[in-house]
Amino acid sequence: MPTVIGVDSSTQSCKVLVVELETGDIVSEASTSHPDGTEVNPEAWWDALQTALAQVDTSHAQAVSIGAQQHGMVALDESGSVVRPALLWNDTRSAAQAEQIVSEFGSEGITKRTGSVPLASFTATKLAWMKQNEPDLAARVAAVALPHDWLMWRLQGYGPRGESSRGPDLTALVTDRSDASGTGYFSPSSNRYDDDILSFTLGHRPVLPTVLGPGERAGETELGWVMGPGGGDNAMAALGLGTELGDVVMSLGTSGTVFAVTSKPAHDASGAVAGFADATGEYLPLVATLNAARPIDAVRKLFGFSWDELAHAVTLSDPGSSGLTVLPFFDGERTPNLPDAKGSLHGMTRASLTPENVTRAVVEGVIANLARGVDAIAQQTQPPSRLILIGGAAQNPGVQTVVAEQLAIPVSVPDSGEYVAYGAAKQAAWALTGQKPSWAAASITLETGDGAGIARAQFDRVLAEHPGLAD
User: Fold this and answer.
1) What is the average per-residue pLDDT within 13-37?
2) Which of 48, 64, 226, 438 could bridge to 32 as Cys pair (CB 3.0-4.6 Å)?
């Protein structure tokens, strides 16, 4: 039976799935770790990918595609060597450069050019940081790639002079709209790089990866596998989940994300909604929060609850948690932009201050904040028709209850899985056959609960009443 390979090269690890082409069934999988840190030598990703591929059955493989962490800056010189360790999305040293870019082009102007207001995570800000702090290295930069671009280039046999079979052909670098849309110098609406932004950030125009369309072939590996164009992790996850126009995904991991598949691009000058592209030719507006599962887990540990006990505690409290509201900004917050904020508990009385109410309140606070992201995306693009709930906390019945209460749309919860790698496998099959597969994961649909507006209204009111949260 022919198979295809999907790769998720994330911040923490490299995951590889081998999937049957016809059925979408996973037949083999492996995972290898990546180094910690906010800057990493890309060779560590290459080593991890090779190790993971060696641990799975590739004997019937015909195609491969790679999804990876977005934004990371891989700078190459003319010989194909990496100029410096890659600065990753979670490296915030370029926050000042993000402000400089906005100051130069204006928030409205930069949003019209690229669909997003740049943050420190974006590649453009990292190039600007290197130009200002490491000018000699910046002057050597002949090409700039993203993590998935560079890994595909290496998998095809390209690389540093003398260390690769095909040599340092920088023009062979390719990418896709989804990953390019997170650089801060690409427009997903016009499908063009912005040379003015590049000139401002780096000082010269390097070679940039050719942007491929959905399902287009990126070339072949040294083993003869067809390669899909790859993509950013959120876009690959959306593809793996089988999202359609009107779907919005809420991911409850360490941090939180909300992203939707829309036919209309977002241009949010406030910076709350990033105007990314998806992997199918549409758009993927996205809102990110710093606080999702971690505040919930912190309260769970405070009361000594297991995850099952946490779910039970939620059911013992009514919507609105008897008037308690938690603003779950335990680690500061990105959306809303309150980097110095702290978590806080409001509305306490002797009667309301119970473990059950506090537990429900922290879950309600996390979901209310992400629901504001759903609203922001809808205002920028189009109303959502379905919410898909994923992430580590998504399988908890208590969390599911609160999500179903707060969202006035159907909520679907797929079985847990490696959706970035699965989406990459789907794309590999698409590139191989010319048809996007219809593989789909099993899921459940939640019943909409009562009291949907109570916790949201409390959250919005408390947030409005405490403008000094970041003090």
Assistant:
1) 96
2) 48
